[in-house]
Amino acid sequence: MPQVTREEVYKVLERVTDPELGGNIVELGMVSGVAVDPDGHVEVGIALTIAECPMRGTIEGDTARRVKSLPGVTDVEVVTTAMTKKQRSEVMQTARKRARDDAEPTQVSPTTRVVAVSSGKGGVGKSSVSTNLALALSDLGFSVGLLDADIWGFSIPRMLGATQKLVADDDTKLIQPAVVQGIKMVSTGLIIESEETALMWRGLMLSKALEQFLGQVEWGELEYLVIDMPPGTGDIQMALGRLLPQAEMVVVTTPQKAAQKVAVRVADMARRSYMPIVGVIENMAGFTCEHGETYNLFGSGGGRVLSDEISVPLLGSIPLDPAVVAGGDEGAPVVRADPDNPAARAFSALASALVEVVPPAEDERCTGRIAKLVAQLEEGLEPAASG
Ligand SMILES: Nc1ncnc2c1ncn2[C@@H]1O[C@H](COP(=O)(O)OP(=O)(O)O)[C@@H](O)[C@H]1O
Ligand SMILES: [Mg+2]
Q1: Half-sphere exposure of residue 355, counting CA atoms within 13 Å on the CB side?
Q2: Are 318 and 281 in contact (CB under 8 A)?
Q3: Residues with CB under 6 A from ligand 1
Q4: How crowded is residue 247: how many other Cβ atoms within 10 Å of its Cβ?
Q5: Atom 25 of ligand 1, residue of closest alpha carbon
């Protein structure tokens, strides 16, 4: 019997993929070690992103099968462990890079910051936050787009008071986004007749609509594209991560302290969609009445708990305020209709906080270049001539 080498084992392990992350376990850095005994006993260490990884059985089985197929291997032991936070973030980076390399081109510029406004559940105010955040970013002087990715449950047109229909440019054949209140906006609500007809499009359009909105809309050079995500953690999230590898996620939550469950759900969504979570937004926080008394109708502290749980900053806390509802119903979002209102001010502060965490691409280019230079020096390469 020939003696099997560690190199040979690594070679076959390159054929074992993490179906969810879409890369092989060696490339993803999930192989923590390989030991080969002279008698042909092989031990493979696999570090899973999370201990309760749903793909655990598949990965373990594939690993054992592949390694056993090598001549000279008498038996295989697969030892799985869970990754540390740092290891996990490195794996996610590799997975993201892969996704980016495989990504289909879209009309969204690679320098546009894409912020997907998500949540673990519906009705927490994603659309209200998306709309007011987009307008507040625009008020800071940025060029902003707002994509309503809630394909059948769209509410952005109503919130912005937009009634026009989308048209395509005669020459480029590209769909022109509606320009409303200074931002570019696209929604299925600008294509179909009524909210009732939306139901008919269910399923039919769902998978294609997002692709079209990203691939066939002439967005132009935006600094920020805010995406109002549909509720839940499903297909649209995954598709977005695939189509727009630069997309990052902010999570809207209520002040209720049921954060543990939400945290697990959004962390799982981030993992499956490759979208890193950049911050938490608490919405419907303490309502202050005209006498100055604050009522925590939906509890308090949930935003902080969730942000601690998933180790990202709490970007803002938006108070519960009737002006948010009225603004949304009348096409006059509170940041524009009543900028001094406490909720409006909270939205403006949120926009500034977001810009801190996710600065416009141009501001980052310089540090990006330095980072690349340092990386090249570390690798012992001659730094490429900088342009
Ligand atoms: N900060 C807030 N204060 C008061 N009402 C709010 C606030 N945020 C959202 N709402 C209201 O809650 C309801 C759900 O908000 P919406 O933005 O449509 O949530 P989602 O998009 O998550 O389903 C709407 O009627 C909206 O006006
Ligand atoms: Mg919504």
Answers
A1: 22
A2: yes
A3: 119, 122-128, 155, 283-284, 318, 320-321, 324-325, 328, 343
A4: 25
A5: 325
**Structural domains in the chain?**
6-83 (3.30.300.130), 103-366 (3.40.50.300)
Which amino acid, 228?
D
Neighbours of 173 (CB within 10 A): 9
pLDDT tens digits for range 252-277: 998 887 756 777 778 777 777 777 78
Ligand 1 centroid to residue 157 C-alpha, Å: 15
CB burial readout 179-217, b (16+ within 10 A) else e: ebbebbbbbbbbbbeeeeebeebeeebbeebbeebbbeb
124 vs 310: CA distance, rounded Å: 19
Residue 82 structure tokens: 């869970």
Nearest-CA residue for ligand 1 atom 9 is 125
Which of 91, 89, 87, 75 lies closest to 18 in space, CA to CA? 91
pTM metric for this prediction: 0.72
| Low-confidence spans in the chain with pLDDT less than 70 | 1, 19, 22, 100, 102-104, 193-207, 233, 259-260, 290, 297-299, 361-387
What pLDDT sits at residue 332?
A: 96
The letter for the amino acid at 309 is E
